[in-house]
Specification:
Elements: H1 3-21, H2 23-47, H3 63-70, E1 73-79, E2 88-94, E3 99-105, H4 108-111, H5 122-127, E4 133-137, E5 140-147, E6 150-157, E7 160-167, H6 172-197
Antiparallel strand pairs: 1-2, 2-3, 3-7, 4-5, 5-6, 6-7
Helix pairs in contact: 3-6
């Protein structure tokens, strides 16, 4: 028997049963059918892959910036965890399960205290790290270093700073490669990101030559 004939015969029997049972049965049958269709539609929706984030990521980053480290971007999380608006952070994740973390502040020495030694500025603290690389870019200073299993590159301009980091591998060569990419991101996007976040830089205070601790 052909499948069409089977469906037709079943439909006729169902229709005859509905006629005998009356309107309540038909209504109940329609409700069951609608519930099943709704569940199937929801299941189909759940199987769809999540929408891919669109660039720029974290206000300024592009695929060209992050692809060498992350591959294809799969997630972006941005948030301001400071009630005063003096701290901004963002995270970009890739399909290789790596993530780039970004922290920015208009006054690094007051906010990014996890990076500084007591009585020493953030930029001077990280510049003194073993193997740190320091370079001047215009009025800014870019510092890259490795510490606590993470690779870092920071853009320091006046009192403001933005630090990019990624978890370093145990392979020193790979960590060095990550440093190079992070440096490139810091140089290319550091000033732009601070501007977009609204953390305008102010000149660093000039030490008083007559003041002694």
């Amino acid at each position: 028997m052909r499948w069409g004939s089977v469906v037709s015969a079943f439909s006729e029997r169902l229709w005859g049963l509905a006629n005998r049972m009356g309107a309540p049965f038909v209504v109940s049958l329609m409700i069951v059918a609608l519930v099943l269709v709704g569940r199937l539609a929801w299941w189909g929706y759940q199987q769809l892959p999540p929408p891919r984030p669109s660039e720029p990521y974290c206000l300024v980053l592009t695929d060209e910036d992050v692809a060498p480290i992350l591959g294809e971007v799969t997630e972006v999380f941005e948030g301001d965890y400071s009630t005063s608006g003096e701290y901004w952070t963002c995270r970009v994740g890739g399909d290789n399960e790596q993530r780039i973390y970004i922290e920015a502040a208009p006054d690094a020495d007051d906010v990014l205290i996890d990076y500084k030694a007591i009585g020493v500025s953030v930029v001077d603290t990280v510049s003194a790290r073993p193997g740190a690389r320091v370079q001047a870019v215009g009025d800014a200073t870019v510092v890259s270093w490795v510490g606590q299993r993470y690779a870092y590159a920071g853009w320091f301009e006046g009192t403001a700073a933005v630090i990019f980091s990624i978890k370093a591998t145990n392979d020193g060569v790979s960590a060095a490669a990550q440093i190079s990419f992070l440096e490139g991101i810091a140089i290319e996007r550091g000033a732009e990101l601070l501007d977009d976040v609204g953390f305008t830089t102010t000149p660093s205070p000039t030490p008083d030559p007559y003041w002694t601790p």
